Amino acid sequence: MSELPAHVDIRDVSLRDGLQIEDPIPLAAKLELLAAIAATGVREMEATAFVSPSKVPALADAAELAAELANFDGIEFSALVASPNGAKRAIAAGLGSIEYVVSAADGHSRSNVGRSTAASTALIGEIIAIAHDSGASVEVIIATAWDCPFDGPTPPQRVLDIVKVATNSDVDRLAIADTIGTTTPRRVTDLVGQVRPLIADIPLGAHFHNTRGAGLASAYAAVTAGVTRLDASAGGLGGCPFAPGASGNIATEDLVYLLRDSGIHVDVDLKAAIAAAGVAQRVVGHELPSALLRAGDRLLGE
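RE: above sequence
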């Protein structure tokens, strides 16, 4: 076990991963949620995705939302893409940071983007070149890094093969994702321990879902293994529309509570994060799984 880091960066993914399985909401409601999240002090936000509107109708307004991002200072906004064309669209819309997702499992890859893992991996270099030619950065996110709803457990070598291609292609950041919320702490530390020696000084992040109640424990395990970037969403909003049974990102406010009480600094204000979770719950119109939204913070008495 590594010494706990003094600081962990949290990227809020509410507006993309959080909303992608929801019924579409108006742009005005997204901007209200964005403003509430920005008020937490978060420095990184995943704003939207430049993907097929027919496949993800909740994010069909990607360009319109991107046009509003300049109104929010001090936040690095990113957008997810699934193809070179998506990368071009994101850059044309003004995004300086893009994420390209490669599923380590063929079953999920075909469900998600209609390609095999090998075919998606082969596009990494092209997408990075498109971004770098425009001065943008690229993060490769490896989905179904532990398990796939179609193929079962993911062999670690499939993850490592994608990592090697990404690092050889001059990727800026990497992340591993538990797309369906099945992993547990020991499996997290095992995989992180295999990935880290391959990436030199490339920042490594992790993305967990709390579908089976182990998301926060897995996030903490990742931090003890040396991960210093974690994704989360307001209220635990979100899930993957192409992975049956996947639901619930780890909630930003629950993660902040855990890290703060572990002596790890984060940029997110907990009281503001709980308020943002309330906004998220209101704009989507149904109860969200956040523990802090129900119980409050022991220190705030709310």
